[in-house]
Amino acid sequence: MASPLQTIAALPLRVLSWLGSQGTRGVAAVVFIAAAVPPLGALLRPYLTEAILGLLCISFMRVDLVALYGHLRRPALVATATAWTTIGVPLIVGLIAHATGLTVRAPGLSLALMLQSMASPMMASPALAALMGLDATLVLITLVTSTALVPFTASMFAGLFLGDMLSITPLSLGLKLLGILAASLLAATAIRWVFGAEAIQRHKTPIDGLNIIILFIFAAAIMGDVASDLLAHPLFTISLAALSFAIYFTLLAITTLLFRRIGTERALALGLMVSQRNLGLMLAATAGALPPTTWLYFAMTQFPIHLAPYMLMPIARRLTGRADASKVTAADNVA
């Protein structure tokens, strides 16, 4: 029989296990809680970089190395997906913004859309893909290659489309991205070496719970001012939210169609990754020195990022054949 001390010590693990068992429902709840409690934004904003680091560390820690090597033996797919997310997407967005005159009529929104398109995929993309039972390893590899190219592609597209709209040093952005990648990879490697892959697999549910907590920190740090903006400018705020959903699902649909020949499940995984842009790193790189409209749009993008995995679960259920995909955990299918 467990002693009271043992029971208390086991409580955090039980809480994490319960939270991890919620799957995509937990991810969806994160965004509403973050928006509903504005003081958390100011409290957690200093930890934005640490949250990004933690999300990627978990992704690296849980990757299936066998599947990883398998994808590396077929580099054409990874190269094509990387080119699409780092070059194709920002090029199309930039051309549309200039052709429609958006850069003149709404410079804050145009800046937000360009930064979104120039950003690397979100660090949580592999974990969210795994939560849906999709190919998280393919997403992770493309995430790494795309992030490594961001210093070069961001510099190129900033020069082409942004002009004087943004004061950003691509080299500083690149060094920060590479530093976060290197640190998270080293930390994940150390964890795998100390505890072993079997122990990580055995504790998959509490690790899922930890992942949801880190996602909450990230969302709260970005969404601290959403409630006040909604009260002050309801129509404008709702319009930006609708636009963020439209762009998210447009990127998802186009990417899935472009890569449908590799299989719908894997194409959907890539679509999920391309739709989720790492705006947190862009905020960190610019030190938050952005127009209010840009900040608000960035906050609105958190709704589709956190809600889409839950909304797409019926599709994931059909593709993966899971009995209850709404509760799938982030370690059930990382290959």
Structure notes:
Keywords: Membrane, Transmembrane, Transmembrane helix. 47% of the residues are buried. Helix 9 (125-131) crosses helix 10 (136-162). The protein has helices spanning 4-21, 24-36, 39-44, 48-61, 65-72, 75-99, 102-105, 107-118, 125-131, 136-162, 170-195, 197-202, 204-222, 226-232, 234-258, 264-275, 279-285, 292-300, 302-311, 313-320. It has one domain (26-32, 39-318): Up-down Bundle (Na+/H+ antiporter like fold). The chain is globular, with a radius of gyration of 19 Å. It is mainly α.
Question: Layout of helices and strands, plus pairs?
Answer:
Layout: H1 4-21, H2 24-36, H3 39-44, H4 48-61, H5 65-72, H6 75-99, H7 102-105, H8 107-118, H9 125-131, H10 136-162, H11 170-195, H12 197-202, H13 204-222, H14 226-232, H15 234-258, H16 264-275, H17 279-285, H18 292-300, H19 302-311, H20 313-320
Q: What percent of the residues sit in helical stretches (DSSP H or I)?
A: over 70%
Largest sheet: none
* Rg calc: 19 Å
User: What is the second-level CATH architecture?
Assistant: Up-down Bundle
The amount of beta strand, in percent, is under 5%
Number of strands: 0
Q: Which shape, going by the Cα principal axes?
A: globular
Low-confidence stretches: 4-9, 322-335
Number of helices: 20
How many domains would you count in the coordinates?
1
Query: What is the N-to-C order of secondary-structure elements (H for helix, E for strand)?
Result: HHHHHHHHHHHHHHHHHHHH
CATH topology: Na+/H+ antiporter like fold
- CATH uppermost class: Mainly Alpha
In whole angstroms, the N-to-C terminal distance is 39 Å
Structural class: mainly alpha
Average pLDDT, all residues: 79
Protein name: Na+-dependent transporter
Keywords: Membrane, Transmembrane, Transmembrane helix
Transmembrane segments: 26-45, 51-69, 76-97, 109-131, 138-161, 173-195, 207-224, 236-259
InterPro entries: Na+/solute_symporter_sf (IPR038770)
